Amino acid sequence: MPFCCHRVQADTNDVDGAKQMLTSSLTLCKGMGDLAAQVATLSVSQQLFQRLKEGDKVAENFNYLARKQEELSTRIQAAEDDAAQHNSVLGWDVGSGYA
Known about the structure:
Oligomer: single chain
Number of strands: 0
Strand content: under 5%
Shape: elongated
Mean pLDDT: 85
Number of helices: 4
Distance between the termini: 52 Å
Order of helices and strands: HHHH
């Protein structure tokens, strides 16, 4: 993931460049439906906004990040539930009665 680039941009005081990179990353992650990467990008954005003491952006981003984290958690739980069901089905011995 290119998150190190955002940190480099922020460390070199190119705050506008860092914000643009984060915005682009989030847009791409949304387009690909990559929820985990969206959460990661929003987390880095949160750190940047906190560092810059942009209170309004911190609050707005925090709420959006919380929603995306909850959505990711829900999807992970659903995948774990599906995996358990699939493992159960894979354990059935459906072929032994046929010759």
